Amino acid sequence: MTIFKYSGSSFYFDDQPIRLLSGAIHYFRTVPEHWQDRLAKLKACGLNTVETYVPWNLHEPKKGQFYFEGMADIVRFIELAGEIGLHVIVRPAPYICAEWEFGGLPSWLLADSDMRLRCYHQPFLDHVDAYYDVLLPKLKPLLCTNGGPIIAMQVENEYGSYSNDKRYLIHQKESMIARGMDVLLFTSDGPEDAMLQGGMIDGVLATVNFGSRAAEAFEKLKEYQPDAPFMCMEYWNGWFDHWHEEHHTRPAEDVASVLDEMLSLNASVNFYMFHGGTNFGFFNGANGHTADSYEPTVTSYDYDALLNESGDPTAKYYAVREVISKYVDLGECELPAPIAKKAYGRMEMTEQASLSANLDNISTPVYTAYPETMEKLGQDYGFIHYETFISGPRPKEEFFIQDLHDRAQVFLNGKLAGILGRTDANAKLEFDVPAEGLQVTVLVENLGRVNYGPYMKDRKGITEGARYGRQFLSDWKTYTLPLTDLSGLQFGVISEQMEPSFFRGTLVVDEPCDTFISLEGWTKGVVFINGFNLGRYWNTGPQKSLYVPGPLLQQGNNEIVIFELHGTSDRTVTFLDQPDLGEESSPGKMTYLCQEIPKEWHTGVQDAVPWHLFEPFELVDTVTGMQALEQTVVRACWSPNCLFIQFICEDRHIASDFLNRDDPLYEQDVVELFFDEHGNGTHYLELEVSPHNVVFDARIENDGFGNTVRIDKEWDFAGLQTNVYLDAADRLVYEIQIPAYNFDRPFRAGMQWRANFYRIDENPEGLREYQAWQPTGAVNFHVSDEFGTIKFI
């Protein structure tokens, strides 16, 4: 029997000290035929361990129906890792986050209106225990204590970011132990007080997750766990993408530098991700940090990781291997032969089937008094089609879907009347009803359930009801459309597309290879190849092509089916040998120059001090504690008349999961900018922007001579330019310039901007007093096709 344990600051495997050098590969995001290739490349990089989550919703898609075949064959994946000579870390907590649909929880949990998630709620515990009764016996023979490769298992995932229910955590721990999980158990949380306090369990190793500032993270962990090894269970070396954003990237040299810092501290590490893979089908998740925010994740889970989406080593791979070689004798890098990729060229779609004409061929209608959610009707993912009738005549009123999740196309007598979405509060649909009445059809798309945060109880469809004016509409006919079986579709000739339709064509392949399907000219929908749901496409980007693993193809004819919701300008697709994940988030320099703090505000400060570097510099999200911006220089200079503070941000890599970066529909967010006068913050700018994003949110603190600076939160536009300067009349000007491409539509003069200015002073009792302070001039707002510029003078 082999034991993996820790003592003091070290891990031990068979009583020999070991440092875990691990990488995350999700078996459920990679086709089984590619598992060996990815695992072999992980080992060749110098890593000795592979880590994977276990998504409950993949393995128990329906209550009591279990699935462990194909991409769900976790046993074979772990066995293969062991055969290659890797240790395995398994994270089977019922919740995994992972930007995966509903954080891995099965959607059928939400059919119970009283369900409470991730807490000591007996119905939830009973469901988890029933799942563990099936899953954990499959893993038991693979534990290192039974001669297998599994050395450690996670009890719950980032629980301190969600709650602090210790009874629940203890139950999870005891459930695993009772089912024979006698390997090292651990938790993972952010390196913050609240997170560690909420997520740690007595007798269970605590690890931390972060992307930078390793020494500080480990020091925080040490406060709570002084006699244990340092382990970063998720080293965020890249990031994921949401629709409407840029493709996130992070420089390889930055990733290597943080790794070197960790290894110099004798820490163990797990790269999240080593290989990201793909959110095939409808398994992408979404972020929803507030009640009115929603950000669905794209199909690609490339993650800008060490291996890209199709498994090729990136610059990070070699940069990381070079750092590891400083601590481990690696020898030559022996990689498997590259997997072949091929550009099959253009392919024409030759047949078409409208959705309305095929509803009864691929679904069965359900009749209810009011619209029901997907979960209530036993549906997991996909689309749901609602129909009702409004009698007439009626004057013009607003048609309102109450609590829509997520995106709806509304048709009146079969013609598209409008598109409504849960994040577009400004979208409205108004119409009058003729004497003969109107047939109203609503096609709702589930864009992915929220996988992180307080709003995970994310039921899909029309969750409250639909109203015409103030009147709720009843008598609904509903078709569930999970699109798991399209064999009933009846195709005809290609015609002008008037409604959501399926298109079919044939790709002839001489040799099945990896390829990438470009949907240039198409709008929004889903692609199926030989019946396999490849995932979503959307011309909003950033992703512009979908990865097609070669094993999904067959020699000869391959059926390609596209479900297009709106329309296409070109009924062809192109198969490429390179991906197009969209425009990358540029690491280009941004400079924030803030000046003119009057001399009387900092009497006693030495005049004409040279530019002084503030150390350390932090850009931290106040909710998660995660650092967001790297390689930032802060300089300050005092002159006889004013204090200058300059921020130069060399790298704009933003952890958008925590910062909600580029959310174009946030309303009434607040920008706070503090200037230090002489050790105490005294100048406060609040900018409220509606209906669009926060621009800048910061607090600057120092000891009166610029020795510490802290910026609490930054909400950033792509290409944002911010300047604060003195004009010719010696007036202080705040200028913020925002490129219009950050938004779904150009800037409009009717946008609302509001600014409030305050002086902050401390009274003798040490309490802060806020006094209104107004700009001497009016607020100027200039609109053009390219930029929106706002000035406060």
Can you describe this structure?
There is one protein chain. The chain has 793 residues and is an alpha+beta fold. Helix content is 14%, strand content 34%. It contains eleven helices and 46 strands. The strands form nine sheets. It has an eight-stranded parallel β-barrel, surrounded by six helices. An eight-stranded mixed β-sheet has the order 36-37-38-35-41-42-46-45, with no helix packed on it. Strands 27-15-28-33-30-31 form a six-stranded antiparallel β-sheet. Strand 4, helix 1 (35-44) and strand 5 (49-53) form a beta-alpha-beta unit. Helix 8 packs parallel to helix 9. The N and C termini lie far apart (74 Å).
Question: Quick recap of the structure?
Answer:
This protein is α+β, with helices and mostly antiparallel strands. The protein is 14% helix and 34% strand.
Write the layout of secondary structure elements.
Elements: E1 4-7, E2 10-13, E3 16-18, E4 21-25, H1 35-44, E5 49-53, H2 56-59, H3 74-84, E6 87-91, H4 122-139, E7 150-157, H5 166-178, E8 184-189, H6 193-199, E9 205-210, H7 214-224, E10 231-236, H8 252-264, E11 268-275, E12 286-287, E13 295-296, H9 315-324, E14 345-348, E15 351-354, H10 355-362, E16 366-368, E17 383-390, E18 394-405, E19 407-412, E20 415-421, E21 430-433, E22 438-445, E23 450-452, E24 461-468, E25 471-472, E26 476-481, E27 492-493, E28 501-509, E29 515-518, E30 524-529, E31 532-538, E32 545-548, E33 556-564, E34 572-576, E35 590-594, E36 612-613, E37 630-638, E38 643-651, H11 656-659, E39 669-676, E40 681-690, E41 721-726, E42 732-739, E43 752-762, E44 768-772, E45 779-783, E46 787-792
Parallel strand pairs: 4-5, 4-11, 5-6, 6-7, 7-8, 8-9, 9-10, 10-11, 12-23, 35-41
Antiparallel strand pairs: 1-2, 2-3, 12-13, 14-34, 15-27, 15-28, 16-26, 17-22, 17-26, 18-21, 18-24, 19-20, 19-22, 24-25, 28-33, 29-32, 29-34, 30-31, 30-33, 35-38, 36-37, 37-38, 39-40, 40-43, 41-42, 42-46, 43-44, 45-46
